[in-house]
Amino acid sequence: MPWVRLHAVKDYLDMAKILQDFPGIHQTFNLVPSLIEQIEASLDPGSKKDRFYELTLKNPKDLTEAEKIFILRNFFMANWEMMVKPLPRYYDLLIKRGKHFSSEEASSAIGRFTPQDFTDLQVLFNLAWVDPVFKEKDAKLRELAKKGRYYSEDDKQLLLEKQLEIMGEIIPTYKNMQDSGNIEVSVSPFFHPILPLLCDTDIAKASYPEIKLPKINFRHPEDAKAQIDMAVRFYTERFGRLPRGMWPSEGSVSEEAADLIIEGGLKWIATDEDVLFRSIGGRKTNEALYSPYRLERKNGKLSIVFRDRALSDSIGFAYQSWSAENAADDLINRLHSLREKLPKGGTPHLVSIILDGENAWEFYPNDGRDFLTCLYRRAESDPTLKFVTVSEYLDEFPPRDKIERLHPGSWINANFCIWIGHEEKNRAWEYLSEARSTLKDYEKQQADPETIARAWKELYIAEGSDWNWWYGDDNSSANDDEFDSLFRSHLANIYILMGKKPPEYLSIPIRAKKTKIAKEPYGFIGPTIDGVDTNYFEWINAGLIDASKRGGTMHQSETIIKRIYFGFDTETLYLRFDLSQNHENNEKEEQLDLSLLFLEKGIKISVPLLRCKKDMKYAILRKAKDETWTETKSVSDVAYNKIVELAVKFKDINAEGGEMLNLMAAIETSGVIIEHCPEIGAIPIELPGPDYESLLWNV
User: Fold this and answer.
1) N or C: which end of the chain has fewer CB within 10 A?
2) Is 23 left (phi over 0), alpha (psi -120 to 50) or beta?
């Protein structure tokens, strides 16, 4: 698959290089060794390239029908708003193919595409993934972008050569910037495994007692140690120094894993604030969060920093829809607000903002560069704030506070449920256990050392966290089937290298096919607005969005919104929201609001999530030209008990029958969005016209 190459030319290099314009901003970048290994392999002239690369080079006249279908299905895998629409020819080709592409439509779509259409698509897909700054500064890339259409075979060759040229700068740039003191480069275990689960899958019960574990316990701390040691050696060879810090994959920690990290020579690790608060058993406080901690073990000490989830997720999930200036101002203002609430004098406090380094930016205009530029400019000129690397801070201000017990968990809900517990995830662990046991027995037969080493590498790859990320109901992507196949292929390779026939079960997909998760409304409804599911028929004709099926390459926490029902009568829109049970705990700590944004209308409805509140009301707000919201009406047709129910008159949102509304729901706290549904786009709701019921009868 193409993701290493595409993210390399869109994110990995420019994320570091932008800091060259802001020498006062120091940052820590975490690089996973298996990512570096794949970048290096891509640059090797003799290595096999990803299929997308190979099909880009192929002349459309030589493409088979299957290859044309592959291109039409996969070469629009980019954010349509931020990456496809800005290239008019690319968007035209998307419309020509159709926004909804199925196998049944493939033949007719192929017939609509000329060889020139395919050539343009091959170029524009790859060009869309090149960071805007490179398309501005490189004369040849700038010319390709300006050309827009009627691309040639030479253009394709040039573009792919430029991509490899960008990839070749990545590791030297990070090394030089670390050597000059602008950045720190930390590391993860080699193939990105969940270290605590490699040490012992039973640890998952310590953080989530109700979890169902695999039938076979996987307990191999020696594998966790191998993943750490391989990472340290690999890093040292590339950067000419030992790494000081480690981001344990997905912020996953346990005391047993910490022992191995200390043994590997690392000085600090980072994880999520929830791990801290569950470790110290106290209420969430700013004073507790904004300091590093010291974990003392028999084999040494380890410093730990804990991320501010709200600030981190604001960059990862919320600011993408804000103007760059407002987003940067908001983040700086929130840092000032935190500073004012903290004790004055003494050791400066450390706020750790930690997020995925590449996945957020395709949802931002200009790949996030405008936001980052505004943020860095404001931060660099602010005398009260200093952006530092983790080691810079720890060198000057070693941890004073000690953690007596480290809670086992990750940066997602402080547990490991994303990677274990679901039937599919557990089956993957069981297959992994069987393959490892077979390999260990084979190793005792004094087999060829090179073959053994290759087999162990296949096993270590299969221990990576991302395979189980895509199993189960938590996350989904357009490549689910490929991820499943790749995981089973790595396990099958172990048997093949041993000269054995792979077990039959490795030829069977682990991942179950997902059923349809939404239905359209069918007929009028008239529910009682009382906050409870009064009877079975109350919402039976409503449309349904199953928000629990969301998920992509990032995961901020368990979703609060689980299901959304929507329906109507001739003058009222009815909405119902089923919320997570975990939301009950959140209510005690922070006030949450349910916000409903009608995009084209510039109207927002705000519902305070206060369970069983008498005289509950929701506010209708209108957006002003300066992007502020003004309340225009307060409505009492809302209730929250077991569920949230509300009735919205069409006239209150300037709507009328037959109109299409686009609704986006969000959970907010203190005006900051912490979750939105759907993750991309909006829920289309077509209000009933005067002939709505008669049309239903005709159907």
Assistant:
1) C
2) alpha
Does the structure show a pLDDT above 50 at 587?
Answer: no
> How far, in Å, CA of 676 to CA of 88, rounded?
29
Phi–psi pair at 613, nearest 5 degrees: -75, 130
SS3 (DSSP) at 140: helix
pLDDT band for position 691 (50/70/90)? confident
The tens digit of pLDDT for each residue in 177-220 reads 999 999 999 999 999 999 999 999 999 999 999 999 999 999 99
Spatial CA neighbour of 528 closest among 447, 638, 662:
638
CB 646 within 8 A of CB 529: yes
Q: Could you give the dihedral angle defined by the CA atoms of residues 521, 522, 526 and 530, in that order, rounded to the nearest 10 degrees? A: -40
CB atoms within 10 A of CB 282: 10
Give residue 39's Cα distance to chain centre. Answer: 21
Buried b (16+ CB within 10 A) or exposed e, 505-526: ebeeebbeeeeeeeeebeebbe
**pLDDT higher than threshold 60 for residue 586:** no
Position 247 scores a pLDDT of 98
Q: Which of 487, 484, 507, 503 lies closest to 495 in space, CA to CA?
A: 503
Alpha carbon distance 512, 425 (integer Å):
11
Are the beta carbons of 257 and 250 closer than 8 angstroms?
no
470-510 pLDDT per residue, tens = 998 888 887 888 899 999 999 999 999 999 988 888 888 88
CB atoms within 10 A of CB 670: 12
Rounded-to-integer distance, Cα 368 and Cα 605, Å: 29
User: Which backbone phi and psi does 611 adopt, to 5 degrees?
Assistant: -65, 135
Closest CA to 565 of 547, 583, 552, 582: 547
Contacts of 331 (CB under 8 A, 6+ apart): 311, 314, 315, 319, 375
What is the helix, strand, coil percentage profile of the chain, to 5?
45, 15, 35
Strands 183-187 and 27-31 turn out to be parallel
Strands (DSSP E) along 309-463, which ranges? Answer: 401-403
Between CA 370 and CA 27 the distance in angstroms is 18
DSSP string over 370-403: HHHHHHHHHHHT-TT-----HHHHHHHS---EEE
Angle subtended at Cα 488 by Cα 203 and Cα 33, rounded to the nearest 5 degrees: 65
Q: What is d(CA 207, CA 211) in angstroms, rounded to the nearest whole number?
A: 9
Other CB atoms within 10 Å distance of the CB of residue 610: 13
In the three-class reduction of DSSP (H, G, I as helix; E, B as strand; rest coil), residue 514 is classed as: coil
